[in-house]
Structure formats: structure tokens, C-alpha cells
Amino acid sequence: MLRISLGLMLAAHGVIRIYAGTVGDFGEFLNNSGFPFGTFIAWGITSFEIIGGATLALGHFHKLICLGFIIQLLMGIFLVHLANGWFVVGYSSGGVEYSVLLIICFFVIASTAAEK
């Protein structure tokens, strides 16, 4: 259930970025953060969220996909969320707590799910 839920959630995250037309904004953020070819990277991340999320939900290549999502979340922590503190809402805003929870979930999936 956890694997399916997280896979679909991350796939939806990528789909809404395309649907809302914000891949370019994400690319601009990456450029401003010092990454060359930010828009290219943004499309790669968005594609990984959709394809990787769907593949994870189906139960294929889960260890590799979980590793990819963990790396993506760690980058988000260091680029965005760490400066905002721990809490997502309440005592601070946009902190690391949600990303840390997702990382733990991906470690659980990678260490327990049977590979198809």
C-alpha cells in the first residue's frame, strides 16, 4: 500500500507540474541555484517523477527508483527546505519534516518490498 501510494503521489506531482505549465519555472529556479541547463534538468526530474512513480506503483525496479527519489528529496532539502527549519506548517513554513518522512518511507520500501 505504501509503495503504491507514494508512487502515485510522485507521479501526480510530475503530472501537475506539466499541466500547470510550471516546468519552466522549476528550470529557472534550478538555473538561479547554480545548475546549468536548469530547464533540461527540470524536465528530467518531472519525467522521472511520472515514469518512476508509475513504475514504483506497479512494483518494478523499486530499489533503484527509491534511490532516485531519495536523492531528489535530499537535493530539495538542501536547496529549499533546510533554510525554513523543521516544520512544514505551524512553527515554521516549508521545512524539512515532510521530505524526511518521505525519505524514511522510500528506505522502508527499498528494504522490504520484493522486486518484480
How would you describe this structure to a colleague?
The protein is mainly alpha-helical and 116 residues long. It has one domain. The chain is globular, with a radius of gyration of 14 Å.
How are the SSEs ordered, and which strands pair?
Elements: H1 2-19, H2 23-32, H3 38-58, H4 62-81, H5 97-112
Helix pairs in contact: 1-3, 2-3, 3-4, 4-5
Strand composition percent: under 5%
Write down the Rg.
14 Å
Structural class by sheet pairing and helices = mainly alpha
Q: How many domain regions? A: 1
First-residue to last-residue Cα separation: 16 Å
Helix content: over 70%
- Overall 3D geometry? globular
Order of helices and strands: HHHHH
DSSP helical segment count: 5
Show unreliable segments. none
The strand count comes to: 0
Mean pLDDT: 94
Report the sheet with the most strands, covering strand number, pairing sense and barrel closure: none
Keywords:
single chain; 116 residues; mainly alpha; 5 helices; 73% helix; 0% strand; globular
